[in-house]
Amino acid sequence: MAVLETHNLTYIYSQGTPFEKTAVDCVNLKIEEGEMIGVMGHTGSGKSTLIQHFNGLLKPTSGEVLLDGVDIWADKSKIRDVRFKVGLVFQYPEYQIFEETVYKDIAFGCKNMGLDDDEIKKRVLETAHDIGLKEELLKRSPFDLSGGQKRRVAIAGVMAMNPRVLILDEPTAGLDPAGRDMIISHIKNYHKRMGNTVLIVSHSMEDIAGFADKILVMNKGSLFCYDDTEKVFSRAEEISQIGLDVPQITKVFIELKKRGFDFGKDVYTTGYAKNLLLKYLKGAV
Amino acid sequence: MTNNIIEIKDLHFSYNSEDKKPSEVLKGINLDIKEGEFVAILGHNGSGKSTLAKHINAILLPASGKVFVNGIDTSDENRLFELRQCAGMVFQNPDNQIVSSIVEEDVAFALENLGVPYEEMRKRVDDALKAVNMYDYRLHSPAQLSGGQKQRVAIAGIIAMRPKCIILDEPTAMLDPQGRREVMGVIRKMNREQGVTIVLITHYMDEAAQCGRVVVMDKGKVILDNTPRAVFSHVAEMKKIGLDVPQVTELAWELKKAGIDISTEIITEQECVDMLVKLLNK
């Protein structure tokens, strides 16, 4: 069953003013439970506006957002529960840390949910483990940590609330290649243990290729496509035309196809490209 | 005088903190950069590359060793203003660098501080905004611009000072692909058309591949310094220190390891396609 659904979701900024802008235009989506989804779109494509609807930070101008089949705005007094069920981690979340210790910072959301201390402790320890923070760090001030560690503390705070849907807006922005891989692998650990739905916004198709079952692409406020990773990558040329970056290797294989060497499948990792080429070259010998 | 615009001689630097032992971040850097060069500095987080960049316009001063920019010793306090006009710096976060509520006023900020006469200022601001393709936005509020546009305004503010060299510390890290292309386009143009020396710190290998020279740092030292082609061909070494190489270089390297006769000195898609076509036609 779909955990999140949108029906004709439309959002207009500054309606009735000269700055009126339709940021999300009639989007219909069904997100199934337990999937790991990559979200892409150029700046201004509406992807941030869209994800802010999923936990009720923005209220649709028209249309609906359904969580477990129920319109999240049907009863306004329940919107707080929606925010416990759909956790949103903003860009550069390390700037939102404020507690005295790492433990308290991770526990903050759980406390607001009214959980008892034993449960909170269990969750903090489990998420700290998932995200790769050693237990001895929990007593330290988060402000003594490195930038990458701080970011993981901030992410853990939302994870510990155990949301049905976890949304991360560019969790790898500004990190070096090793840091990017590490954050993604930690999020994967968490996803594996909890089995919940995870959406990750990223500009890098190479990163997305490494984790996503499905990819959601926004373009100019509309849903460009929402499909299995392979199928989305097979439209690499169109995706490049709407201003997104296609992996270098994919471009090479598109060009090879034009030159008469069609390898059939779409290629977006070097490992796969190597195997294809070796098979062809060795087979030819 | 030689035509080195930047000369770094045996530079050492440590950050001091109260409770911890000072740890040496830069361990004897020697680096000369010629006027008009376009140099990328690569290194993982904590390799010392930002610390190095901050020495070029005297945000930080050497613990030992010397840094000269256009012949000016960066530790000479009397020439600090002169130094910073010569070497401008652009940082990662566009929001932290914008001070004014109108684009053209922001670009004029440094010129006002320098006491540049009005007529001259008007011309320099207009020229700078045109150079970064933001002239049409001169009366807009920076708050309504995209990240890439804001970053170009920040660069215009530096260009207006007419520096001989610009140091950019991960200027595209917070931008989307479109914004990255815009900013890289402006940087390349400044280098090519005005001969401005560029020192670009980046995590993006495709950006480094567009430079004339790549300097790789690890643990406070320069470990590779060569053309992008030559640097990226050290695939195993780059991976060991937590850096990537362009996908096409990695592919060539993997194929070579598997016994295919192929050069690993390729960095562009076109080179890769040409080489593969040649191989496949054999």
Proportion in β-strands of chain B: 15-25%
* Oligomeric state of the chains in view: heterodimer
Number of helices of chain B: 11
Main beta sheet of chain B: 6 strands, mixed
Overall SS class of chain B: alpha/beta
Largest interface: A-B, 36 and 39 residues
Distance between the termini of chain B: 53 Å
Q: What attributes does this structure have?
A:
heterodimer, A: 285 residues, alpha/beta, six-stranded mixed sheet, four-stranded antiparallel sheet, 11 helices, B: 282 residues, Rossmann fold, globular
Walkthrough of the structure:
The complex is a heterodimer of chains A (about 280) and B (about 280). Chain A is built from eleven helices and ten strands. With about 280 residues, chain A is of the alpha/beta class. In chain A, strand 1 (about 1-15) and strand 2 form a beta hairpin. Chain B is of the alpha/beta class and about 280 residues long. Helices cover about 40% and strands about 20% of the residues of chain B. In chain B, a hairpin with a 7-residue loop joins strand 1 and strand 2 (about 25-35). Chain B is globular. The N and C termini of chain B lie far apart (about 55 Å).
Topology, pairings included?
The complex is a heterodimer of chains A (285) and B (282).
Chain A: E1 2-13, E2 21-32, E3 36-40, H1 47-54, E4 62-67, E5 70-71, H2 79-85, E6 86-89, H3 102-112, H4 117-130, H5 147-159, E7 165-169, H6 177-194, E8 197-201, H7 205-209, E9 214-219, E10 222-228, H8 229-233, H9 236-241, H10 248-258, H11 270-284
Chain B: E1 4-15, E2 23-34, E3 38-42, H1 49-56, E4 64-69, E5 72-73, H2 80-86, E6 87-90, H3 103-114, H4 118-131, H5 147-159, E7 165-169, H6 177-194, E8 197-201, H7 205-208, E9 213-218, E10 221-226, H8 228-232, H9 235-240, H10 247-257, H11 269-281
